[in-house]
Design brief:
By secondary structure, this protein is mostly helical. About 80% of the residues lie in helices and about 0% in strands. Helix 3 packs antiparallel against helix 4. The protein is globular and about 60 Å long.
Length: about 425
């Protein structure tokens, strides 16, 4: 089968797989109360949320601790086989959630899912450049990032609206397997460095793999991912609360705005990847940095405007909602241009044999940034309120401080615009 025939079906199947397992991950938020009401999650009104929170925290910590090992295995064993194994683990574990009879069973099953879900990240990051040539990697990575965002909407619909939670988990678990099997079959013959026609491979060395991440461009991209991810972490978790508290809107209104925002973010991944691909095809290798610089600059201003907008408290009129919602949607859309380009730049500056290891480090830092964001936001809000500042203003100040971390990423992209063309190691 030729490369041209393979790329499209592989990316579509991969996107559907990613959409399915992220839907299964996000779905927990929609079904957690019914689980408690049925006695699966223990505790009374005052403390059941502690037990519920551990269903995300413990699998997340264990999954993160094992991420590096999966990245190394991706370099040693190849990516298609590992993708298949981790897909089966995710599918089976989510399907088994549907048979939960007590809390310990549920926690153990979700730990298995967490290990596979977090572990598959660096494997996919390394797999995409095996399939997609350098000039198409923006769209290639968008095939991962966009469905990972849309999974939030799909998970809320499946678990919160359409199905009883046990049925929902059986369905999503089955879908993961349904898409994991054809992805493996389509990927047979896709070896490390396949899209770059790499035939001879160096023997894997952990020392050499770690050195591969020390060129200027890769190092900058990996380090900047923490300040880049922190604002995303707090925005995704506290966006509904921010809109409720500062704008005076109901939870339903705020959730609807967040759902629309998710679509905007997904679209931003695709546009950002496609724009940079078109520039690279024309020989402008700094195009990925240029697109990201423009996106982050406009996106930063859009989100800044949304955070400070003097919204008429409690109003649900269309004309009142339109300006700040447009600011938010444009802010998230443009800022997201950078995400597929971060991965594309790293993949272009690291030899195929070592991408799994480097992307494991990237994934650990990226996930950590997302986790740190909500905590820092909470600390800042507490500080400002304890200093005598009103709650609404405290939320705004905290949001602006964390959003300003994107300026670090902006500076990083300006530097990378010069270093990236020089540090590329891909074969074309």
């Amino acid at each position: 089968m030729s490369e041209k025939v393979r790329v499209g079906p592989i990316l579509i199947t991969l996107a559907l797989l990613v959409l399915s397992y992220f839907a299964g991950d996000y779905m927990l938020a929609a079904v957690i109360r019914p689980m408690w009401e049925e006695g699966i999650i223990p505790g009374g009104v005052e403390n059941w949320r502690v037990y519920a929170g551990l269903l995300k925290t413990i699998p997340g910590i264990i999954g993160l601790a094992l991420t590096f090992a999966w990245g190394v295995l991706a370099d040693k064993l190849g990516r298609p086989r590992l993708l298949f194994i981790l897909s089966l683990l995710m599918g089976l574990s989510l399907a088994l959630v549907g048979f939960a009879v007590n809390y310990i069973y549920l926690l153990l099953i979700l730990i298995i899912f967490g290990i596979a879900k977090i572990g598959i990240g660096p494997v996919i990051y390394a797999f995409i450049p095996d399939v997609v040539p350098p000039e198409k990697r923006g769209v290639g990575y968008a095939a991962y990032y966009a469905p990972s965002v849309l999974g939030f909407v799909v998970g809320m619909i499946i678990g919160g609206i359409l199905f009883y939670w046990r049925t929902a988990y059986l369905l999503v678990g089955s879908l993961i397997i349904v898409f994991g099997v054809p992805l493996y079959l389509l990927s047979k013959g896709i070896t490390i460095g396949y899209s770059e026609k790499v035939v001879e491979h160096v023997k894997y060395s952990l020392k050499d793999a770690l050195k591969a991440g020390l060129n200027t461009t890769t190092l900058i991209m990996i380090i900047q991912i923490i300040p880049w991810a922190i604002p995303w972490g707090f925005i995704t978790l506290y966006a509904v609360d921010y809109i409720q508290t500062r704008w005076g809107l109901s939870k339903e209104f705020a959730s609807g705005i967040l759902a629309i925002a998710a679509l905007s973010i997904a679209l931003g991944h695709v546009i950002g990847g496609k724009l940079s691909d078109s520039m690279v095809k024309k020989g402008d290798y700094s195009g990925r940095a240029k697109v990201s610089i423009i996106g982050v600059s406009i996106g930063f201003l859009g989100m800044f405007g949304m955070f400070v907008y003097p919204y008429p408290y409690g109003s649900t009129e269309f004309l009142a909602l339109l300006p700040p919602v447009l600011l938010a949607l444009s802010g998230l859309l443009f800022t997201t241009f950078a995400y597929p380009n971060i991965s594309s730049v790293i993949s272009d500056c690291v030899k195929p044999e070592y991408r799994g290891t480097i992307f494991a480090i990237y994934n650990i830092l990226n996930t950590s940034g997302w986790a740190i964001g909500p905590f820092l936001y909470g600390l800042l809000v507490e500080y400002f309120i304890s200093s005598g500042i009103g709650e609404k203003t405290a939320l705004m100040y905290s949001a602006l401080i964390l959003e300003s971390l994107w300026l670090i990423s902006l500076v990083s992209w300006i530097i990378v615009m010069k270093t990236y063309p020089r540090d590329r190691v891909v074969s074309e």
